[in-house]
Design a protein that fits this description.
Layout: E1 5-12, H1 13-20, E2 31-38, E3 45-48, H2 49-55, E4 58-66, E5 72-85, E6 88-97, E7 104-105, H3 107-112, E8 115-118, E9 123-126
Parallel strand pairs: 2-7, 3-6
Antiparallel strand pairs: 1-2, 1-5, 4-5, 5-6, 8-9
């Protein structure tokens, strides 16, 4: 078993809204395509500070996190962003970590996109029950 690395498309949701309202050119929407680690132990989308700054995401609050080594620390949460993996997309916020850190796709994103970690094939795949679009229980 190895890491699951996925292609992730990110976009500043405020920029997209400004474009749709006629206040911004589509070419000016801040976006990025990155490689990220699908981490079933992580909760949120986690992005390095330099990428968050380049996307123009704003800090919306701070939260306390428990790191993999057991330490606790406060980190900023920024957004809103649109995240897309394959043909599935959702709006989210992200945890901001120091520049140069790995980008992580956590459980909230996997659940929001209805994707599961396929460790054998080292990929994120739609659940068999929902191959065409996310399916949720009400």
């Amino acid at each position: 078993m190895g890491e699951i690395i996925v292609d992730v498309e990110l976009e500043n949701l405020r920029d997209r809204t400004r474009f749709e309202d006629g206040y911004l050119a589509e070419a000016d929407i801040r976006q990025a395509t990155i490689k990220a680690v699908a981490d079933t132990g992580a909760m949120m989308l986690t992005l390095p500070a330099d990428l968050v700054e380049r996307l123009g995401a704003r800090e919306v609050r701070r939260a306390v996190f428990v790191f993999a080594d057991g330490r606790r620390g406060e980190l900023p949460i920024a957004g809103p962003l649109t995240v897309q993996i394959g043909d599935r997309r959702m709006t989210t916020e992200c945890t901001v970590v120091p520049a140069g850190a790995d980008a992580l796709v956590g459980q909230l994103i996997m659940e929001g996109l209805d994707l599961v970690a396929d460790c054998k094939n080292r990929s994120l795949t739609p659940r068999p029950e929902s191959p065409d679009m996310p399916m949720f229980r009400l």
